[in-house]
Amino acid sequence: MTLVAGVDTSTQSCKIVIRDAATGQLRRSGRAAHPDGTEVDPAAWWRAFREAAEAAGGLDDVAAVAVGGQQHGMVVLDEDGQVIRPALLWNDTRSAAAAEQLIRELGQGDRSAGARRWAKTIGSVPVASLTVTKLRWLAENEPLNAARVAAVALPHDWLTWKLAGAADFDQLATDRSDVSGTGYWSPFDEAYLPDLLATALGRPVADLPRLPKVLGPAETAGPAAPNQADAIGRLNALLGPGAGDNAAAALGLGLEGGDVAISIGTSGVVSAISARPTADESGLVTGFADATGRYLPLACTLNGARVIEAVAGFLGASYQEFDRLALSAPPGAGGLVMVPYLEGERTPNKPHAAGAWHGWRLGNSTPAHAARAAVEGLCCLLADGLSAIERQGLEVDRLFLIGGGANSEAVRQIAPTVFGREVIVPPPGEYVADGAARQAAWVATGELPIWPREGTQVVEGKPAPIVRQQYDEVKELTLGAN
User: Fold this and answer.
1) Distances from the Cα of 422 to the Cα of 139, 253, 257, 263, 459, angstroms
2) To bridge 248 with a disulfide, which of 68, 158, 329, 426 should be the other Cys (CB 3.0-4.6 Å)?
3) What DSSP letter does each residue of 431-454 carry, written as one string?
4) Is the pLDDT of residue 118 over 70?
5) Residue 233, pLDDT score
6) pLDDT tens-digit readout, 147-183
């Protein structure tokens, strides 16, 4: 029996699953927390990885390891390979102004022209999450640190590099799914764009930092370095190329053309499997690649399951009580609408926006109506992402609902009424880590395995168009909307 390990180095924690490469059967697992915040010392990811690996019983018996990770995070290294400053994570919005600068610069002052050129060049229009904007922020706000940058990596690149021994920059590797979210790699040409990186950092092309080599879906990043594993057992494993978290989740779910996943975690993500790259100049859909050689256009929201967490806390309700309250109120919540921009928003691009309640009347001033409005508002936010995906000409045959937010019975029951179609809810699982494990099996055996998935639920619901109609009428009326 060949065992493989999949790692999810996410915003909140590190999860590791160890599975049978042939059957996908889970053998053991472990997890460890990451610190809160939108900037993190990568050393914390390494500590969490080791803790999670130890909790999983070690990795000395696995044939391959692959790392799925949060996208976009900026890890900058000096010439000795040391981390220069804490990594800025995808949800750090301090580079919003830098994103606007880059758009206008490429359009020679014309924002519309700049957005069009960015979309045609990288498949996306820069927002604060993309790495390229964080590098511009670094150059403008920490010029001494920017001058020291000898290499730039993403979170999953850095952790894979640590597993490889972190001896030199030649070992730095990434994959096309994660690099497609940097802002300086083209999914059309499958190549880095040094001019854009130079523009972001304010350096000549001849003086650019090293970037990870981009591996194909089943290529190996080399062998793990045994001496890096000391406390978790001796590693004798190949390293997979890894993947961005959304691409890894799609691989874990086994998504095919026509499938769309709506993931409700720290953020909300609507992603589709496509045979062609996309270029949405509106900026709502980012034209990423996937982990199989295809593409993964997606719309990402800053707000996800924490909307439910926040409102449940506000109401003093447990999650079970929150679900009961939400499902006891009528569709449309009696006219009460919540616009859930609690942490600003990315889809639409309103990084400084705040959340808002609208239509509050005596008749809907109950905890049940508030809970229902929160779930409907979150689903409407995600439905806007789904509409943006469809405007790219992509077919939507099946809709999958995943992530921690999908554990909410209220979300599962209300989502079909807002989306206007049935949703498929796979059993709860660590799909990013599972996708990384499936990739590791591909690397170890030379074939991408098909792993069965049991316990999937299909949820139908009567469409309630009033919900989106109400939401559309008020969603622009939010504090700091621009």
Assistant:
1) 47, 18, 18, 15, 6
2) 68
3) HHHHHHHHHHHHHHHSS-------
4) yes
5) 59
6) 999 999 999 999 999 999 999 999 999 999 999 999 9
Sequence letter at residue 278: T
On average, the pLDDT of the chain sits at: 94
Burial 264-280 (b: 16+ CB within 10 A, else e): bbbbbbbbbbbeebbbb
Q: What is the largest CA-CA distance in the chain?
A: 66
245 is catalytic: yes
Decide: residue 458, CB within 10 A, 0-12 exposed, 13-18 middle, 19+ buried.
Answer: exposed
> Is pLDDT of 184 > 60?
yes
Q: Tell me the C-alpha distance between 157 and 179, whole Å.
A: 9
Q: Which of 178, 245, 323, 384 is catalytic?
A: 245
Q: Residue length, the chain?
A: 482
Residue 333 and residue 347 in contact, taking contact as beta carbons nearer than 8 Å: no
pLDDT of residue 438: 98
**On the CB side of 298, how many CA atoms lie within 13 Å of its CA?**
30
Q: Strand locations in 117-208, DSSP E?
A: 151-153, 173-175, 185-186, 191-192
Neighbours of 233 (CB within 10 A): 17
pLDDT digits (tens, 9 = 90+) for 98-109: 999 999 999 999
